[in-house]
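Thread: quick sanity check before group meeting

JM: Hey all, I'm pulling together slides for Thursday and realized we never actually wrote out the predicted structure for the chain we discussed last week. Dropping the sequence here so it's in one place. If anyone has concerns about the input, flag it before I start.
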Amino acid sequence: MSNRFAQQWLEILCRIVPQTQSAVLMVNDAENKKLRPLAKWPENAVDSSELSAICKLTLDKNQPTCVPNVLQPDQRHYDFFGVPLFDGSLFLGVIVLKLEHALTDRRQAVFAALEQSVHWWRLAQSQRQHKDSFYTSVVGLLAACFEQNSYSEVLISLGSELTRLLKCDRVAIGEFKDNYSKVVAISNNAQFDQRANLLQKIADAMDEAIEQDSVVVVPDAKALSIQRAHQEVVRKFGYGSLLTVPMLHDGEFIGAVTLLRSEEQPFDNDTVRLCQQALALIAPYLALKKLDEQALSVKIAIKLKQRLADLLGVKQFKLKLTTLSLLMLVLISATLRGDFHLTADAVLEGKIQRVVAAPISGFLQSAALRAGDTVRQGEVMASLDDAELQLELSKLDGQLQKFRREYREALSGGDLVKVRVISAQIDQADAEMELTRQQLQKINLAAPFDGVVIEGDLSQKLGSPVERGEILFKIAPLEGYRIILKVDESLISYVREGQKGALVLASMPSQTFPLLVQKITAVAKTDSGKNIFRVEASLENAPELLRPGMEGIGKIEAGRASLLWIWSHEMLAWLRLWIWSW
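JM (edit): ok, ran it. Output follows.
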């Protein structure tokens, strides 16, 4: 194939596929056994390294390939498409396109256009020796159409070029929609009356060709197709020769073209073939051009209609089976009812908790117990250093002896005023000594009852100062527990006092403990980045192995509901909130 023809073919292909930025056609070089570029678009393009990479990827996969949303050095995103070219089992080359990135999925449309163009290129490859003029005519026809800006201008140009190229009296172009055809363009006429009798009959002729999925030529002595509508156009309006060619895109009819001549100029096989090839190439471009000019809502509706047609049609059995299975699952889950359980993190706490605080300020001398240890009532848990208190007691005892000696001297001297003063000092010293003795009695911190230490480890703080009232330990009894459930704020509306449930602890995953909701706090707090409500529940028949601080998962029975609602209520609640936030 000549470089000139390949360049023209590639340029037409790039115009067929909207938003094409660059392209390259690589063909197999039999001498060097390597791929070489036969044509590129634009012709003055220099750097094609990214296209070469896609070409290599297509060769490795040996199938049509798409690499979407690739960021390029110009900080823009592009989609790359590659298609290998074969003639039967003979490998011919690779075509690679670079397109502006689109938000909607257009792979099917682009690959369809590529496959249609490749088919034409393959046909040209096998017949190029004696068909140069034929394809030059087709290229000229298509080039004239691609120069137009709008869809309607493309239709008018197509009709006019077919009229000029094939020497027709008139060419009508129709769209096929809702199972019938409608004439949308007439050669050399920008405006026409849709209600004209001729146009209605031509539309009937288009329907006749589309229904038979074949080209209809009148006159044709060997024709096997029905020609009733075409014969009526000949009989009533004087056109002796008619040719109608249906247009296909993506396996569906999108319209037809009817060419009219006088009786002295019948349509020969070459003319029919030229028209078929030209329309086969232009059909994908017409479909993409029309879709590109539609509003976004119309594009969405078309996509939905295509998906619905796939579901209801005879194709894509797996898709229909999957959809039917999902539909059956939704219907069954909406009918069946099940128990609705609320799941929340749970912590085990004692019903009663007591703190052991420092009775006086001092220094920590010993700490025999730590969190997790069991204690007996009266058992010493920690002690404070009594050195300062003993010194204080000795000091006060010396002062007391001094005051008593002075008291006796004042009494023997008859100094009544001094006697009263010293007597008061003696009373004060006695009181201070009594206070010091009481403080000495409190330096040993004893357990108030039998239980387990749930908080406090002073083994690393020996010798450190403590302040009066500072909490050193927390103790909980070994019997009587409550469960604290951390219920998410999105689920708290389903929780009621008196509801039952079950608890599974991380330390005993094989056992389930029944629980009963007792209290719901009215204030939320933040925990691990989520707003939660504290729900208190009682635990029945607690075994001796339980200890305060154990964690697990609790489930609250919140009634019965449909399985569909149980599975989807959280997502629906989030969706309602998200819509409301708009």
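AS: nice. The radius of gyration is 47 Å. The CA atoms of residues 108 and 579 lie 33 Å apart.
JM: adding both to the slides.
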